[in-house]
Amino acid sequence: DSGVTQTPKHLITATGQRVTLRCSPRSGDLSVYWYQQSLDQGLQFLIQYYNGEERAKGNILERFSAQQFPDLHSELNLSSLELGDSALYFCASSVVDKPTYNEQFFGPGTRLTVL
Amino acid sequence: LAKTTQPISMDSYEGQEVNITCSHNNIATNDYITWYQQFPSQGPRFIIQGYKTKVTNEVASLFIPADRKSSTLSLPRVSLSDTAVYYCLVGGGYSGNTGKLIFGQGTTLQVKP
Question: Is the CB of A99 less than 8 angstroms away from the CB of B31?
Answer without folding.
Answer: no
